[in-house]
Structure formats: structure tokens, C-alpha cells
């Protein structure tokens, strides 16, 4: 399974304006991504000239022990990166910013062929990297780790980003 992971690289991600939503459910990734895709259509985002949709997501950690253990619930945030001047035609999301930051990142090939193995292993590799050496993370305050999925020539990929320094 080692060849499914790229080398870790350091990148600076510019400030992003995002429209985001969170869902807590037994299958939050599917539920919230569907919600956001529907919102993007209704809001007019997907009709913007020259707009190339970019979606990111991350685990939502504020799920109670009871929700998790008794009901099998998890939380996930899905967000569209949106243009600075975009004004949605509907409500239903939070519009906010993710500040510019420096990240360690790696690419996972075909992440959903074993989602609960490949993705956590990718995060573990990045966390180990981010907690050692010259890129050691000094703080997580107002910072997030996130993932972005896309296809290239029929192959599905996920880039995972973890803040460093």
C-alpha cells in the first residue's frame, strides 16, 4: 500500500474564502458533500463564468462521546472555495475565510478503495512529519488540517494538508 502515497512536500496555501457546512451523522462525508453540491447549484456558484469548483473538507471534532459511542455519529465539514466577490442566491452555509498557512501535504491515490485505512494512514504520516524536525507545528490555534479530492485522467486522488511551523 506504500506506493499509494506521494512524497511529503511543503506548500503555502493562500487565504481562501469558503462556503462551508457541517453535518453530524453516521455517514457525514456523503451527507454534507451532497448538501454542499446542492447548495452550489442553487446559489449560482456553478454558473459563474470561468469558475472551476474546488471543494475541501475536514473532520468536525465537536461530536460528544454519547453521539459517537451510542449512536455511531461522526462530524464532517465540506466547503467550496468561492470567489471574493461571489454573492450566493440562497442562504444555508457559513461564508468565512481560511487564512494563508504553510502545510505539509501528500497525495493519496484511490483513497476510497480502503477509506478507513488509506486516509488515516496518510494523516498519520503527515502528523508524524509535522510533529518533528524543522517543520514542527508550534500551534493549532485557528488552523485546520483538510483534504481535497479530484480526478486526473480517470484516477481519483486526495491531497491531505496538515499545518506546519
Sum up the structure in keywords:
about 160 residues; alpha+beta; eight-stranded antiparallel β-sheet; 3 helices; globular
- Identify low-pLDDT runs: none
The number of distinct helices, counting runs of at least 4 residues, comes to 3
Beta-strand residue fraction:
35-45%
If you average the pLDDT, what whole number results? 95
- Rg, alpha carbons: 16 Å
Q: What is the string of SSEs from the N terminus onward?
A: EEHEHEEEHEE
Straight-line N-to-C gap: 29 Å
- Shape label: globular
Short synopsis of the structure:
It contains three helices and eight strands. It has helices at residues 28-43, 65-71, 115-130; strands at 9-13, 16-25, 55-59, 74-81, 94-98, 101-109, 146-152, 155-163. The longest helix has 16 residues, at 28-43.
Amino acid at each position: 500500500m506504500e506506493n499509494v502515497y506521494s512524497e511529503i512536500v511543503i506548500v503555502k496555501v493562500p487565504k481562501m474564502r469558503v462556503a462551508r457546512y457541517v453535518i453530524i451523522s453516521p455517514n457525514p462525508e456523503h451527507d454534507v458533500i451532497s448538501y454542499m453540491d446542492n447548495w452550489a447549484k442553487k446559489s449560482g456558484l456553478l454558473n459563474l463564468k470561468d469558475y472551476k469548483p474546488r471543494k475541501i473538507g475536514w473532520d468536525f471534532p465537536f461530536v460528544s462521546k454519547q453521539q459517537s459511542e451510542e449512536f455511531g455519529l461522526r462530524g464532517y465539514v465540506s466547503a467550496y472555495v468561492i470567489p471574493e466577490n461571489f454573492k450566493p442566491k440562497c442562504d444555508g452555509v457559513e461564508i468565512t475565510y481560511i487564512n494563508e498557512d504553510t502545510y505539509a501535504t501528500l497525495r493519496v491515490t484511490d483513497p476510497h478503495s480502503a477509506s478507513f485505512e488509506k486516509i488515516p494512514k496518510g494523516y498519520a504520516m503527515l502528523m508524524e512529519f509535522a510533529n518533528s524536525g524543522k517543520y514542527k507545528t508550534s500551534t493549532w490555534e485557528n488552523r485546520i488540517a483538510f483534504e481535497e479530492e479530484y480526478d486526473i485522467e480517470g484516477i481519483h486522488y486526495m491531497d491531505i494538508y496538515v499545518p506546519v511551523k
